[in-house]
Amino acid sequence: MVHGTVPPSAGLSSSSALVSAAALATAHAHKHRISKEKLANLCAECERYIGTQGGGMDQAIAFLATEGCAKAIDFSPLRCRDVVLPPGAVFVVAHSLAKLNKAATADYNCRVVECRLAAQIIAKKKGLDWINIKRLGELQIALNVDLGTLITIVKEILHEGPYSKDEVLKVLDVSAEELTKTSLTPNTTHIQEFKLRDRALHVFTESLRVEKFIEECKNAPASGDTSLQVLGRLMNESHDSLRDLYECSHPRLDRLVELSRELTFGARLTGAGWGGCAVALVPRANIDKYISTLQEKFYDGTSAEDLSKLVFSTSPNSGACIYYATN
To answer: What is the enclosing helix (H) or strand (E) of 157?
Structure first.
């Protein structure tokens, strides 16, 4: 029997939770001892068989999460660091009521392909073996430069506005068939325009924001509420970038984030986007006021019972584990 309470198509990793739990249960049933890191990598690879070119963040946190602290996750190889969040604030998740099945559209994979093409064009311009570069993170490793330098390189090499498919073929000096093999996915071969500069700028500026978030959490005991304000500002900047550069938000998400910012330190969409949930950094004393405001202005007077399924506070907890039920 399978049971879950994570809403689907909400940006809360319901599919990854199911896959991760199923993999752990199967390994346990067959008495296989597998490290959490290997299980996370296996689950990430398995989910790509449905057609979405996802990373491994959801599966990693599903297995590597620990109670009481957030995690900074890095890849190649998979590893994570504890990030202790400052006291005095709570993360509250709120559903926009807009849903997207990312496996049923090309939007998600299109962003992956745009980032790949951005990395490959920059790599070619820099004289690198561009065919073997599939991710912007691999580009950074190959160039051996910091994020600030990468952002400058993106602005220098990639022009504003979309690239046509013909322009990409010309820059990379490949045929349409070769591009399909080296860069595209089965459900993105029909796409004729790619916004490479905006997508790359979002990825690298978002990475900078993550670094600043981690550093601010380290300094939180000394800076108190100032840290919470900084973290909230970083979340606001993140959402603005997701909306304007990565273009994966939704009007209902934008409205939810706008309302949230009036009563919180900051808010942003979470998950793949195009619907789903927002997460807000809320002063602990303001949680009830924040939720009641959303009930009045966003959820149109939804009952308290139904509202509890749409808006809830959360805190870091442990990841997937085997639980032995007692009679």
So the answer is: helix 147-157
Asked if 224 contacts 157 with a C-beta cutoff of 8 angstroms, the reply is no
Q: How far is Cα 291 from Cα 325, in angstroms, rounded to an integer? A: 34
For 162, phi then psi, to 5°, come to: -75, 150
**Phi, psi of 13, rounded to the nearest 5 degrees:** 65, 40
- Is 129 part of the annotated catalytic residue set? no
- Given the residues 58, 146, 240, 254, select the one marked as catalytic: 58
- Residue by residue, DSSP assigns 239-297 as HHHHHHTS----HHHHHHHHHHHTTSSEEEE-SS-SSSEEEEEEEGGGHHHHHHHHHHH
Token code pair at residue 14: 């319901």
**Amino acid code (one letter) for 6:** V
Kindly list the distances between the CA atom of residue 269 and the CA atoms of 12, 68, 121, 150, 206, in Å, as whole numbers in the listed order. Answer: 11, 22, 29, 25, 13
- pTM for this predicted structure: 0.89
Per-residue pLDDT reduced to its tens digit, 72-130: 999 888 889 999 988 887 999 999 999 876 555 789 899 999 999 999 999 999 999 99
Q: Which of 71, 77, 49, 67 is nearest to 58 (CA)?
A: 71
What does the alpha-carbon distance between residue 142 and residue 96 come to, in Å, rounded to a whole number?
39
Domains by residue range for the chain, with CATH:
14-100+203-314 (3.30.70.3170), 107-194 (1.20.1440.340)
Cα–Cα distance between 57 and 75 in angstroms, integer?
A: 9
Length of the chain: 327
